Recover the amino acids of this structure.
């Protein structure tokens, strides 16, 4: 499984989340503690926003996060008030830059942790539901990218709740017995959106933080610091939104018994 981190607040160097903390995202790429795989070495990437730009900056590479000499310097020099990052352990699709997260469409960026097991059998059916404008943006071969494009096609920008419900219902309707497990973080450059969902109630982990020392807040697959009491689990089947330093959330549908 992959690992995700995201931040919103006063502008900070990306290293404050990605490389500097005791259990930073870079650390989790080699020593994850809440995933089936402790090593996430099939590529990494990050997206950051600048208020003067209409679309995020994107950096992705197929190297493990610990092997890219550019990562430390980039994270030290780039400052942003909103960014998200990802380290990949591939479950679907080869190791290529096109399959590394974050994915982006216009002002949106997206990271995914999890798997749609029946994707090889149902990929064509899911792709057929995409409008040409989004289908033509597809570059990779992962279930993650199709999930993102499906959310966009179903109107996540206008109605996040409705788009999530439509997309997850469509995926659940595809044939296959293995559980779908989906944890995602998205941004439109203004807010962060996060959710966890699994058909067997075993969604990959995601936490949100108390206010950090600089006044910002974050999401992470695993708490980034030694004080885990400052981090709280994102409930399953709940969309959590971080906007202007405040969290809000609402259930997608009643939890399974």
């Amino acid at each position: 499984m992959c690992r995700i981190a995201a931040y919103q607040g006063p502008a900070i160097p990306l290293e404050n989340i990605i490389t500097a903390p005791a259990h930073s995202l870079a650390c989790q790429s080699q020593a994850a503690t809440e995933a089936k795989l402790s090593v996430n070495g099939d590529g990494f990437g990050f997206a950051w926003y600048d208020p003067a730009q209409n679309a995020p900056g994107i950096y992705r590479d197929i190297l493990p996060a610990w092997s890219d000499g550019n990562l430390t310097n980039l994270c030290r020099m780039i400052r942003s008030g909103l960014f998200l990052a990802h380290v990949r352990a591939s479950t679907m699709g080869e190791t290529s830059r096109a399959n590394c997260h974050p994915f982006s469409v216009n002002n949106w960026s997206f990271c995914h942790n999890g798997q749609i097991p029946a994707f090889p059998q149902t990929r064509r059916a899911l792709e057929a539901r995409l409008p040409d404008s989004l289908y033509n943006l597809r570059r990779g071969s992962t279930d993650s990218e199709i999930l993102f494009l499906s959310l966009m096609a179903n109107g996540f920008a206008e109605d996040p709740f409705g788009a999530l419900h439509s997309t997850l219902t469509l995926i659940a309707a595809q044939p296959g017995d293995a559980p779908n497990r989906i944890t995602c973080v998205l941004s439109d450059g203004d807010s962060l959106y996060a959710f966890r969902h699994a058909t067997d109630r075993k969604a990959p982990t995601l936490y949100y933080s108390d206010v950090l020392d600089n006044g910002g807040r974050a999401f992470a697959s695993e708490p980034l610091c030694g004080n885990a009491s400052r981090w709280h689990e994102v409930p399953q089947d709940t969309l959590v939104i971080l906007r202007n330093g405040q969290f809000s959330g609402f259930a997608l549908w009643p939890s399974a018994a």
Summary: The mean pLDDT is 92. Helices lie at 15-18, 25-31, 69-77, 119-128, 132-135, 143-153, 160-172. The chain has one domain: 3-112+180-251. The longest strand covers residues 3-13.
